[in-house]
Amino acid sequence: MIIINRKKIILSFLVLLFALTSMFCLAYANDSENEASKVKLERHFVFDTIPMNLEEIVNASNRIFSGKCIKAEETNDETNLPVVKYTFSVKENIKGVKDEEITFKQWLPTVRDGGYEVGKKYILFLFPDSERGLTSPVGFSQGKFNVETKGIIRRKEIVINKQNNLGLARNLKTQKKISIENNKFVNDYVYRCSEQGIPMRYKEFIEAVKYLSGK
Q1: CATH architecture for the domain at 54-212
Q2: How far apart are CA 75 and CA 108, in angstroms?
Q3: With 0-12 CB in 10 A as exposed, 13-18 as middle and 19+ as buried, what is 141?
Q4: What value does the mean pLDDT take over residues 190-195?
Q5: Which one-letter DSSP state was computed for residue 100?
Q6: pLDDT tens digit string along 146-189?
Q7: Does position 30 have pLDDT exceeding 50, yes or no?
Q8: Quick count: other Cβ atoms within 10 Å of Cβ 9?
Q9: Cα(155)–Cα(153) distance, rounded to whole angstroms?
Q10: Within a 10 A sphere around the Cβ of 95, how many other Cβ atoms?
């Protein structure tokens, strides 16, 4: 009788151990699935670096504008996800922007090496907001252009992205070319800067973007 009780005790202990182990594995799997979902949800903000020409960047954008960053604030969203909230004063609204100021949020890991400095001017091509209300430049850094002023006597604004404008006139992977049919000079100028990987003048760049966006 004692032997039977011991067997029952051992069996019960093993059942309990199995149940606890299963619960732990299930909980771990759910946590992993949730984390994977978070990564999947925002992963295009980090890994979307497929080469694109300027027309493809324009078509993938929900908002296109030039402006100066006037505020950057690190915060958390409703689910405690670390984000940076940016406010820009808009100089030129090219697509999807109506107000003189625009505010958007970007996931913190995507701005550690590609954020915006307060006081500096940019031309941005932004993805549509995700379900979390976050965005980022199209192609990560391909859709973020710094606007800089060069020259001592004849000062002029120039535009360049992290790829040094390489591939803007033709997709480096597919070789698909853009065509600015209404202005051969701008078309050839964009092509030359794209092939050489050099900055473009602000005026010609904006004209090309407006044409490609149908504005």
Answers
A1: Beta Barrel (2.40)
A2: 9
A3: middle
A4: 96
A5: S
A6: 999 987 767 899 999 999 999 999 998 999 999 999 999 999 99
A7: no
A8: 10
A9: 6
A10: 18
Q: Which amino acid is at 196?
A: Q
Residue 60 has, within 13 A of its CA and on its CB side, a CA count of: 24
Amino acid residing at 129: D
Q: How far is CA 25 from the centre of its chain?
A: 35
User: Higher-confidence residue: 53 or 29?
Assistant: 53
- State the chain's mean pLDDT as an integer: 83
Phi, psi of 44 (to 5 degrees): -70, -20
pLDDT, mean of residues 82-110: 94
Q: Nearest 5°: CA angle at 115, between 35 and 161?
A: 115
DSSP characters over 125-146: EEPPP-TTSB--BTTTTTTEEE
More reliable by pLDDT, 69 or 1: 69
**Domain map of the chain by residue range?**
54-212
Tokens read off for 122:
């940019």
Burial of 147 (0-12, 13-18, 19+ CB in 10 A): buried
- Percentage, residues of the chain above pLDDT 70: 76
Report the greatest alpha carbon distance in the chain.
104
Residue 208 · residue 180 · CB < 8 Å: yes
Strand order through the sheet with 82-95: 101-107, 82-95, 63-76, 121-126, 144-150, 156-161, 200-201
Report which of 72, 161, 71, 70 is spatially closest to residue 112, judged by C-alpha positions: 72
Tokens (6 digits) for 83:
């984000």
Encoded tokens for 77: 């969203």
